[in-house]
């Protein structure tokens, strides 16, 4: 935290709470440019922002109200958005390049209509977003609740949320931005020529929620997933319209859902992250405070290639009183290639379809040398296109893709884009013949320090948080409740997600973890699984220096720690209780599972399940000790 | 033609045939920058073009050869491409802004790989493309030939062209840019994260070809179309793999195909026009000569908002010796919002999935006034986004969308884009309260003169040519053979395609029309069907001054002329013979059908079908005469 407190932009930020503007320039009130409830406020905000630019304003004030935002009058911008879907976007708050600037919503709610990126900030310096909420008038997903189950007919009936514009296309359940708008697209195979048909989807990617817990249903994700094609029966699922907004799905899943369960489907998984709510790119100093995102088609907030991002009381929450069961259809927050400090304080993230946060950098694939000092590289993930991998002066490591082990550190002289997929990096050093086949490259400089404190991540699909940075990371006094997989995950891979970053100093303390692993039945609270291939040097470890202490874990999951290629893990003074709400996982299974780990210390913990916990250490492990615990069998491997 | 001959850029173009460069600058040889057969030549061409720009070169020479072009090293450009699909494109020959410049291919063949726009020219002046061919290594469509038909099982077996990378996804037949690459997308619903999975499709939009004629099969388009869902049987079609590249389709169409027929499917109709071969935008003076396009995912050549475009011996042809049955998956040429002269001379267009040419402008929808002189307008067609509707000094007419009748002419002062869909036009005149509800606007200035001479359009889906311009149009000595609908179409609508342009001076003479209407069984050789709603002023006509004379028509189609809202039509000295190859349409039907037409003269024609031709004139017609013909009943309506 020290570095954050020293940054200059915090002082004016604090001052602004006392009514003084952020940067000293004039304050612009959007109401003076046509903002009013009940209208399309996109033109008014666009006009007010033009005035802000022209006058060098320090603050745009939105008087408290509920404001609709339509894409019609919004600016176009082609956006590469890391881990979301690129494209030509309509942007309402186009904040690019603004410095020492603040948007103060005064408690306003912005209601977006159809695809857009309401907040886009590229190349800003000292930007502050505060005191507003963002929602969409209708969700981009399909939601339906099971109102009847017929085991004999292998079918269930589902009442679809009135907000969703759906129709049947033969056996298929499709939905769109406009009720009845998709028929022509299907039957006559006509293109969506008209301006009112913008998107449509049918049942692909989906998940069940439990209305009692408002969390993902406790079930097997694969057998209960609704499919268009039933693999076991080798025939298509059939959807029929029962009238009154209710449909019957027959042969749609291997295991029928329970009555009351709520299905959420986003349709095709990609492209589907088309409208994240807030996109921050290439910024220095961004503060988001007292803000809530209720929905987004994609991530609620994504920051890339930026420095010093502080989120305080930034929340991702279901709209109050709404029957919706999902907020953002991807992560609540996501940070790619950032540096400096990332701070999340007092934030609550609920009911997302992906993680609470994921902080990582990107592995680029090394294609070939382009000169004695130069390498041609590409970005392997379709959602990393256009990502800025490195900047002059930064350290980049060449790394074996198979083992993920860095073997050479180089200093960037310059980076030239060939296109959004390919770029050429010229280093200050000659590479010589040292380039190994099957190499990737990782950026060693853009490794932020992170503080996540007093936050709550709950009822989301996927993980609590993912950390991949060699900076100092503190995860303290948070609550991670009812997610579908691990509480805290340390990953790293160069073959699919291409997410890089070796943890070097992580402390997880004083947190509550409760009932993670809802769709697997057994997920580690701490999961360290870099995709390090077999046959790597046993004396090298991908992640290091991880302290997990003083946490409380109330879980149905037997496995507490699963770790691969990590050294110096301390699991100390934690209390682990059996879940109160879900059946416990197989108690015969080990609670600690290590694969190629060194120097693990498990001590001072209280494990309060009926069956004591055990430790399993696979090949390549050494110096693993469990002793001085209650309810954990002693274990020692030298 | 006079205006064309006077334009300055023709003289150097002719000189260049004698080895003198086009603009006086140096000549760059791409071989000096790494061009060589067997390699990816995109980087070499990019480098050579950089040198051309730097040195002010007048000509880029490609020594005769076959050159592969891959997208990997190509530049990115976000392209709005009229009547094709917009998006971030990889462009190889990125010619934007070049003046007095020529690309001379010396007879070379460029073989493109995967989606790209090989030739993109925006804002050029005096550009010449000559002496090369463009093809793709594998087609974007799926092609298969019927090798067996089982009436009892309502199925047919189809052998798929080896060039197509297909697989089964349950009952569905899918194809992709890489064999076997789509399984994960389907089964695990994973996004196409990896760089080698770029696109995939399944059986939507499709058409049958007849291998004997190499033309579209003579059949009913709707009943023979292959469907994923069988509407009549209310169940899905089923595709099964018979091995050896053969699949069986059951319940896939209402009427089974014949053995030998060839199916071509492009998958979803939109987005599917992603890779036109040549895109020209905002250029003045473009000459394309001795050039052939063999395939394109979209149009072979599309020019928009440009002036003076000459195509000589520009062809769209099947690759020699190839089993492929389709060239471009859309039009051979298409001109939107152009002015000056458009010339097509000695061109052959075959086996496209859309028209030989379509020359039109765009109706913009008037949304609301934005001031006494200003109107906010939008572009109603999804493939017109970003189109530049008008420029300062141009004449724009306000028009009733329902009747298509212009009611007020205004002069453009300036146009400001709100985004690619919406723009604000400020006129020199005040509009006052004269704006009628339900209005569109059309550009009266961008109405090119057109010469289409010595061309052949054959074996394509859709029409021969579409003409919508008030300029002088001459269609002379061409051959229009075996298309699926009308030979020459004059259209206009403000509700779906939004194509504008009143014909004012059209002469069609000395052409051969043969067997148009293959999938309808009866299509007019001259089809004039502007979508003028009922109740329009009967004294006003959308198209005017159409002379159709001295043509030969060998056709199975009974209807020769279908016309709506047109005046001054002369159908003179034409010879009409029955088709030699196809069954004749119902001879009892009228050959001339008029709806709200005035001043029609049918004289001096020889109609050589067994049954004489008759004229039908509906309500709102006047001054229609047929006399002095052989084989056409005399007709007179005053």
- Number of DSSP strand runs of chain A: 53
Low-confidence stretches of chain A: 1-21, 187-194
Largest sheet of chain A: 28 strands, mixed
| Radius of gyration of chain A over all CA atoms, rounded | 25 Å
The quaternary structure here is homodimer
Distance between the termini of chain A: 37 Å
Summarize the amount of helix of chain A as a percent range.
Answer: under 10%
Strand content of chain A: over 45%
Mean pLDDT reading of chain A: 92
User: What is the overall silhouette of chain A?
Assistant: globular
User: Largest inter-chain interface?
Assistant: A-B, 46 and 46 residues
Q: In terms of structural class, how would the helical and strand content of chain A be classed?
A: mainly beta
Counting H and I runs of at least 4 residues, what is the number of helices of chain A? 5
Description:
Chain A has 638 residues and is mainly beta. The first copy, chain A, has five helices and 53 strands. The longest helix of chain A is centred in the first third of the chain and has 14 residues, at 42-55. The radius of gyration of chain A is 25 Å and the shape is globular. The relative contact order of chain A is 0.08. The model of chain A is unreliable at 1-21 and 187-194 (pLDDT under 50). At the A-B interface, β4, β5 and β17 of A face β4, β5 and β17 of B.
């Amino acid at each position: 935290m020290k570095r954050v407190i020293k940054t200059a932009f915090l002082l004016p930020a604090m001052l602004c709470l006392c009514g003084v503007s952020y940067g000293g320039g004039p304050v612009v009130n959007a109401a003076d440019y046509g903002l009013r409830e009940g209208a399309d406020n996109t033109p008014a905000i666009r006009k007010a922002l033009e005035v802000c630019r022209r006058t060098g304003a320090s603050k745009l004030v939105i008087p408290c109200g509920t404001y609709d935002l339509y894409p019609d009058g919004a600016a176009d911008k082609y956006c590469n958005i890391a881990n979301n879907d690129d494209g030509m976007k309509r942007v309402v708050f186009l904040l690019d390049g603004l410095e020492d600037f603040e948007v103060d919503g005064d408690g306003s709610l912005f209601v977006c209509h159809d695809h857009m990126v309401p907040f886009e900030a590229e190349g800003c310096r000292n930007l502050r977003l505060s005191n507003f909420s963002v929602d969409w008038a209708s969700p981009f997903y399909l939601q339906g609740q099971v109102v009847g189950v017929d085991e004999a007919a292998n079918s269930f009936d589902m009442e679809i949320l009135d907000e969703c514009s759906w129709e049947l296309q033969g056996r298929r359940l499709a939905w769109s931005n406009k009720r009845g708008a998709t028929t022509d697209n299907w039957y006559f195979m006509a293109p969506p020529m008209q301006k009112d048909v913008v998107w449509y989807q049918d049942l692909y990617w989906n998940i069940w929620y439990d209305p009692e817990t408002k969390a993902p249903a406790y079930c097997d994700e694969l057998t209960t997933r609704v499919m268009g094609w039933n693999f076991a029966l080798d025939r298509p699922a059939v959807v029929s319209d029962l009238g009154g907004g209710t449909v019957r799905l027959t042969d749609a899943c291997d295991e029928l859902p329970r009555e009351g369960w709520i299905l959420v489907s986003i349709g095709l998984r990609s492209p589907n992250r088309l409208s994240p709510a807030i996109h921050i790119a290439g910024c220095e100093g961004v503060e988001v405070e007292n803000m809530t995102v209720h929905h987004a088609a994609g991530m609620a907030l994504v920051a890339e290639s930026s420095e010093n991002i502080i989120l305080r009381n930034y929340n991702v929450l279901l709209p109050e009183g709404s029957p919706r069961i999902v907020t953002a259809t991807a992560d609540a927050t996501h940070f790619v290639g950032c540096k400096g400090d990332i701070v999340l304080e007092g934030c609550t993230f609920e009911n997302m379809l992906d993680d609470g946060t994921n902080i990582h950098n990107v592995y680029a694939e090394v294609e070939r040398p382009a000169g004695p000092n130069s390498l041609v590289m590409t970005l392997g993930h379709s959602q990393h296109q256009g990502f800025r991998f490195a900047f002059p002066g930064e350290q980049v490591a060449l790394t074996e893709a198979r083992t993920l082990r860095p073997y050479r550190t180089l200093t960037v002289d310059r980076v030239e884009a060939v296109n959004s997929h390919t770029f050429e990096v010229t280093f200050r050093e000659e590479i010589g013949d040292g380039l190994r086949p099957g190499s990737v490259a990782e950026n060693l400089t853009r490794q932020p320090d992170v503080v996540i404190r007093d936050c709550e991540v709950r009822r989301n699909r996927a993980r609590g948080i993912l950390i991949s940075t060699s900076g100092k990371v503190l995860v303290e006094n948070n609550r991670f409740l009812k997610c579908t997989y691990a509480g805290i995950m340390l990953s790293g891979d160069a073959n699919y997600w291409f997410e890089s970053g070796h943890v070097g100093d992580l402390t997880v303390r004083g947190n509550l973890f409760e009932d993670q692993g809802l769709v697997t039945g057994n997920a580690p609270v701490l999961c360290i699984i870099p995709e390090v291939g077999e046959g790597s040097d046993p004396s090298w470890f991908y992640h290091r220096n991880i302290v997990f202490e003083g946490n409380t874990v109330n879980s149905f999951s037997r496995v507490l720690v699963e770790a691969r290629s990590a050294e110096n893990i301390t699991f100390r003074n934690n209390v682990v209780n059996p879940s109160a709400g879900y059946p416990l996982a197989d108690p015969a299974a080990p609670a600690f599972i290590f694969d190629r780990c060194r120097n693990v210390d498990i001590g001072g913990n209280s494990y309060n399940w009926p069956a004591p916990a055990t430790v399993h250490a696979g090949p390549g492990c050494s110096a693993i000790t469990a002793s001085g615990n209650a309810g954990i069998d002693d274990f020692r491997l030298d």
